[in-house]
């Protein structure tokens, strides 16, 4: 069981190290990332819609 605790401790340490992003994004980059997220979510939505309609639910 100690190896599980050691592994969990290492994971917690890594999570603490990278909890706060170190890069700064300007407004244009943030807008592009939001638009990309919306685009990807719409693609997933279209895929799910296509799957549901082809299965006949």
Report on this structure.
The protein is 79% helix and 0% strand. The protein is mainly alpha-helical. The mean pLDDT is 92.
Strand count, sense and closure of the main sheet? none
| Head-to-tail CA distance between termini | 47 Å
Global Rg: 20 Å
Structural class: mainly alpha
Q: Give the assembly state of these chains.
A: single chain
Q: Provide a count of the helices.
A: 2
Mean pLDDT level: 92
SSE string, helix = H, strand = E? HH
Morphology call: flat
* Unreliable spans: none
- How many β-strands, per DSSP? 0
Range of strand content: under 5%
Estimated helix fraction: over 70%
Please outline the helices and strands.
Elements: H1 2-17, H2 27-55
In short:
The protein has 2 helices and no strands. It has helices at 2-17, 27-55.
Structural key phrases:
single chain; 57 residues; 0% strand; flat
């Amino acid at each position: 069981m100690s190896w599980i605790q050691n592994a969990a401790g290492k994971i917690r340490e890594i999570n603490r190290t990278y909890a706060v992003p170190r890069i700064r994004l300007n407004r244009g980059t943030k807008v592009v990332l939001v638009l990309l997220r919306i685009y990807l979510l719409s693609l997933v939505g279209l895929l799910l819609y296509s799957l549901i309609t082809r299965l006949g639910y």
